Amino acid sequence: MSKTKRKKMQGFNPTLVGLSKPEASHHIVAHPSGWVSEAKPAIAITLGDPTGICPEIVKKAISDKSVLKICRPVVIGTSTKFVPGFPTRKSDKAAVSFLIRAVKLIKNEKVDAIVTAPVAKSAFGKLGGHTEFLAKKTCSKNVEMLMVAEDKKVLLLTRHIPLKDVSKNISKEKIVKSTKSVCEFIKKYFRIKKPKIIICGLNPHCGDNGLVGTEEKKKIIPAIKILKKRGLDVAGPVNPEVAFLDMKSDLVVCMYHDQAMLPLKLLNPDKIVNVTVGLPFIRTSPGHGTAYDIAGKNRANPQPMIEAIKLACLLTKNN
Question: Which range of residues forms the domain containing residue 233?
Answer without folding.
Answer: 151-267
